[in-house]
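Agenda item 2: flavin-adenine dinucleotide complex prediction
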Amino acid sequence: MAQEDYDLIIIGSGPGGYVAGIRAGQLGLKVAVVEKDPKFGGTCLHRGCIPTKALLHTAALLDEIKGVAEHGIQVAAPTLDIAKAHDRKRKVVDKNARGIEALFKKYKVTGMIQGTGRLVGPHQVEVDGKDGKRVLSTRFVMIASGSVPRDVPVAKADGERILNSDHILKLERVPKSIAVLGAGAVGTEFASLYASFGSEVTLIEMLPRILPIEDEEISAELERALRKRKIKVLTGARLTAAERTEAGVRLGVERQGKAGTPAPPATVEASATSETPGWRTSPRPKASWRSSTWPASRSGRSTTTRCHPAPTATRRWAAPASARRGRGSAATRWRSASSRSPLSPRRRSSATPPASSRSSARPGTTSCWGCTSSARAPPT
Ligand SMILES: Cc1cc2nc3c(=O)[nH]c(=O)nc-3n(C[C@H](O)[C@H](O)[C@H](O)COP(=O)(O)OP(=O)(O)OC[C@H]3O[C@@H](n4cnc5c(N)ncnc54)[C@H](O)[C@@H]3O)c2cc1C
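Presented output:
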């Protein structure tokens, strides 16, 4: 096995890894970024923030066009070509992925290495790539391996009726009805998206309010806005069963009454989406030796989605599902982003980051604060 020398090897090329790689390159270190996916950019770019925001932008335009009559503008009722919306989403993602590669080249990230990284010694990383295994030597290692979706025990994702967020971002049809499990940022975004696309949406949250980690006022305001859009919101509701039926999935839900007393169990009959509130860290790169540079905390996220068999729409599937999902080492605070905010087309998250960390959100572009967006180098 050949030996190569770097100052820094980064395992994972999500917002955690690629930004660090570029910064290290700017500072003159000899850097390699190891990525097991075919493209650089991680969850945020390929299965997270960016594709979601691209579709939410489509949804926001659709809603806006539906509302133009009140401005005295007459247009025919808009229809959605979901396959085309996904095509646009792919173009946005590809453009940003090329942007990351360009930045790597510009800032002399000399090693852009495709393969699965594994620590085999205090200063050695083995990379298992398409040309076989090789060992790279390095002064420092950074692990930025992100996280993957986690299944809900009673509703394991099958990629057909019960979907996680990786699956749903490739779903090129609009289910008649959909139930989203988990009303965090991701679940609420998908609920909003599919309501705009025309599905009947039920949003199920185990905790007493949606967006449970935000301020109570935000949860209350957003819940009102979602209900106004005919999204059925079930809070204090625990999923107890998910039975696949001919038409979709029947969900058993246990709800707490107002005073915390159990309410009669409810059944949600839906083709459903669900985003589970839990995340699972990405499997750590296998190591015979464990580095002290291991990240202190990473979180994982899972989304489970269920949906009816395709009602009408054309079914075109994107690239084969890959299993990774991430959130964590890079982004500690959720920042929903887009020139048009996803949750309500004209609202923007109150968690506005400092200008220096914000990506340029030009009208009509898809961006994500704090992560990939229009891939930019960190300030020098
Ligand atoms: C649907 C969805 C929407 C989201 N929207 C937003 C949003 O709007 N705003 C926001 O701030 N955040 C959002 N997030 C969260 C965001 O995607 C994550 O916070 C972010 O991607 C975490 O970055 P990371 O670099 O830590 O990990 P990741 O982006 O997961 O990157 C980790 C990379 O490491 C690679 N890897 C793992 N193990 C190995 C190995 N052994 N060898 C080589 N490579 C390896 C993986 O393939 C992956 O590419 C969203 C997430 C999802 C799922």
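Discussion summary: Helices lie at 15-26, 42-47, 49-66, 82-106, 165-168, 185-197, 216-228.
Owner for follow-up: CH.
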